[in-house]
Amino acid sequence: MADSLEQIAKEVAVCTNCPLHTSRIKAVPGEGPPDAQIMLIGEGPGFHENQSGRPFVGAAGEFLSEILQSIGLSREEVFICNVVKCRPPGNRDPEPLEIEACRVYLDRQIALIEPNVIVTLGRYSMARWFPSARISRIHGTPRRIGRHLIVPMYHPAAALHQPSLRQEIMKDFGKLPQFLAKASQSWTESGDDATEPESEQPQQLSLF
Predict the structure, then answer these.
(1) What b-and-e string marks burial along 78-101, b requiring 16 or more CB atoms within 10 Å of the CB?
(2) Rounded CA separation 119/54 (Å)
(3) DSSP string covering 154-180, please?
């Protein structure tokens, strides 16, 4: 049977691969169109997400919707998910074993959607591609890794705790249409090489 986002969501809903399932009310597999050009990957569901089964529906989600609207995008045009699909108790940071347990689902989602641009929101999402980097140094800077353009950014929730970051986040997202246009152009010009493995040594995209 062919894989699909719906199939992944069904598996996530009953997953017991890590302890997070014991406090799960609703799993949060992610949402968005299967052909989204932009994929946003956060860290983990919070209280409201655990209640609703949808990603980014709390205060950080409202800010994210505002940011997207400011650059002419809506939530319905992008795919939004997290590195873990169930809420860590007390909104604590996701642990390495939990992230690894959910990685198979995220891998399949990326393979199915094949986004031109992946935006990582927060350091735990960023660490998948840049494990030794500091988000304060590389945020807003795109890197080409295999098939995808990866853009690390601050998590929207960071602006709720540090209002000084709000303009920085807005500025980074303001570059996203340009990144998407360049990534789409590069993909068209390079031909169909979707089977090319992701490089272990990410390179900063020379176009920027």
Answers:
(1) bbbbbbbbbbbeeeeebeeebbeb
(2) 18
(3) --HHHHHH-GGGHHHHHHHHHTHHHHH
Longest dimension (CA), the chain: 49
Q: Is residue 14 part of a domain?
A: yes
Q: What is the pTM of this model?
A: 0.88
CA angle 152/48/12 to nearest 5° reads 70
User: Which CATH number is 74's domain given?
Assistant: 3.40.470.10
Query: By residue range, what is the domain housing residue 113?
Result: 5-26+37-186
Q: How many domains does the chain have?
A: 1
- What is the per-residue pLDDT across 19-62, written as a single tens digit (0 to 9) for each? 999 999 999 999 999 999 999 999 999 999 999 999 999 999 99
Q: How many CB atoms lie within 10 A of CB 200?
A: 7
Distances in Å between the Cα of 21 and the Cα atoms of 2, 50, 70, 122, 134 are: 26, 11, 36, 23, 30
The distance from CA 35 to its chain's CA centroid, rounded to whole angstroms, is: 15
Q: For 45-49, which contacts have Cβ atoms below 8 Å and span 24 or more sequence positions?
A: 45/82, 45/84, 45/85, 45/86, 45/87, 46/87, 46/91, 47/87, 47/91, 49/87
